Amino acid sequence: MIILEARNLTHVFPDGTVAIKDVNLAVRKGEFVVIAGANGSGKTVLVRHFNGLLLPSRGEVLLEGKPITKDLTRARKLIGLIFQDADSQIVGQTVAGDVAFGPENLRLAPEEVKKRVKESLEAVGLSHLAEQRPHLLSGGQKRRLTIAGVLAMKPRIIVFDEPFAGLDYPGVVQVLNQILKLHREGHTMIVVTHDLEKVLAHADRLIILEKGQIVQDGRPCEIISQVERYGIKRPYGKNRGVESMTWLS
């Protein structure tokens, strides 16, 4: 079943720069997709269209067969986007307050908000820090807090934009564990990265962007030998038939 689809998606900035052009892709429910490309290839611009944070100059995005522009609130509930800069996504004075922000904006009953906050913090292992101030968290903990904030909205699709940027090894392990756990639980996962070695071994599909267009789309084991021509570092080692570093067992 196709859950998310982009049709002829094009975005032109006011200065005339074409960020993405005629992008067509379909993501199936439960799929684990990695979108890769060199800096400036259009990765972030593309995924910000998925829940309407950016609107296209031409084309459309469909969620479960319906254009997201028909109901942007629904799209932003069902498609959670986790930014590269966790600090830009954290708005609460406490960890629990930050997770509550989204559900409260949906005007849910206080009991439901409290329930979602509790469940989301448990899911990312931050329950013991519920009253902590977010700026005191480590980089990995901040990334997990943003994941909790998205989980509280009950999404079906979770999009990570460069989830490992700026993290030390323990932070990378924390976040990668969380991504894999969410996928096992049935979420559709889209991970944007230019660094394949941490995540590619776990992916069902690899999409490569270059100059705002999809130039490769298929199984990682079929595409991995070509990534360097697009300015992407090629991972080494072997795991599940895909060349990659094995970060976790």
**Largest sheet descriptor:** 6 strands, mixed
Net shape: globular
**E-strand count:** 12
Residues in helices, as a percent range: 25-40%
The CATH class is identified as Alpha Beta
Q: Report the CATH architecture.
A: 3-Layer(aba) Sandwich
CATH homologous superfamily grouping = P-loop containing nucleotide triphosphate hydrolases
Low-confidence stretches: 239-249
Distance between the termini: 30 Å
> What portion of residues belong to β-strands?
25-35%
Walk across the major sheet and give the strand order: 6-7-8-3-9-10
Work out the helix count: 7
GO cellular component, one term: ATP-binding cassette (ABC) transporter complex
Protein name: Cobalt import ATP-binding protein CbiO
Keywords: ATP-binding, Cell membrane, Hydrolase, Membrane, Nucleotide-binding, Translocase, Transport
EC number: 3.6.3.-
Summarize the structure.
This protein is α/β, with parallel strands linked by helices and 249 residues long. It has seven helices and twelve strands.
